[in-house]
Each structure stands twice: as structure tokens, then as C-alpha cells.
Amino acid sequence: MFGSIAAGVRRAFPGVGSTADGRDESSDGGGIGEAAGSERDEMPGRGYARDGAPVHADGADEGVVFIVGMRINSFWKLHRWVPVLLAAPRLVRELEAEPESALLGSWTFLSPPRTIGFVQYWESAEALQSYARDPDRGHVDAWRTYAERGGDGAVGVWHETYPFEEYETLYSDVPPRGLGAVAGTDLVPATGASETGADRLDASGEAGERGAVDSG
């Protein structure tokens, strides 16, 4: 049963590719923002380093990480959780189709056997909240449907929002995903002053402080 459910999820959610322990089992694609490699040492937003050396994401000084998911609590109550399952990819496709979308990047994760979700990158918390509350967009109807069908505990939903403040990343011999695949970030060699995670985290914090001063 679990195998057939997982297969259905993969068809409904292109880019599902992470197991519960975080191992990537997908192909090189993973949703919005991922693309094939580049031959440059510094690649705007995506690709491998030319010589295979590790790279890291730079320039993502503003925005939020939004993690949202659903948990199937009662597998046999298909009429409760299937509509929730099918609504999520529709919302992502809606955002993908908008040229001015505030969604910068998104990828899907699967934590068998019960949890499916998205890790998303948005321009700001305000833009995320504006989308969620807009009656002309799909989220309002999707939430109303969940509220009407919920109440018996058959399916649950959850989300977390984290502003970009300090972060560090590393991509070695993989197509960058997550923040490294977000529009507006650059991938630069993880060498010199950016060689260690602590170095990259310090540099991120300093960039955030400069941005706060510039906008003050």
C-alpha cells in the first residue's frame, strides 16, 4: 500500500526526491529554480563548479524560507486527505506561471510513509502572507476546502517561516538545490575567506548588517 501511495505522490509532485534522512533520490531536477550545470566558475543561481570544486550561494540577503507540509493520519480516509494532496502542486504551478511571482524557488520532499511537503523561498514574509490571503488566488479556496473536510484528524498540515538573516551553504558534485538554486543568488567558489562553514556564516551575518544599515 505504501509503495503505491509513494508512486502516486511522485506523479502528483514532480521533484519529490528526499527521503526522511535528507538523501536526494531524485534526478537532477527538483522544482522551481534548478537547472543544468554551467561551465563558469561563478554561476548566477545554478550549476556545478567548472573543476568540480565546492561552491556556495551568495547574495541571498533578503527573503524567507517557508516549509509547509501535510501528514496523512488515517490512510483509509482517502476522501479527507487526497484533496489536500492534490491541492498543493496546483498552488505551486499557479505561482510558477506568474512572471512576477514572489516565490523564488521551491522543492518537494517526501518523508515516508505519511508526510509530504515543500521547502520554498520567498521574497519576503509580507509577499508570502499577501499570497496566502488573496481571495483571487488558489490558497484561500484550498484552505477553505481543508477546513471544511478537516476536523476528524484524518490529515494534518503544518508550516514554518524563517527570515533570511544568517545562512551558509555548500554544494559539492551536485546540482545546487534549495537556496543555491534560487533566482538572484550567485554560486561562488567555497575557498579562501569562504572555505569553512563558520567563515560563510560570518560573512552572511556581516552582509545582513550592511543591508540593514543601507536601508535604514
From TrEMBL:
Bias kind Basic and acidic residues: ranges: 197-216
Chain positions covered by the region annotation Disordered: 16-54, 190-216
Record's protein name: DUF4188 domain-containing protein
UniProt lineage: Archaea, Methanobacteriati, Methanobacteriota, Stenosarchaea group, Halobacteria
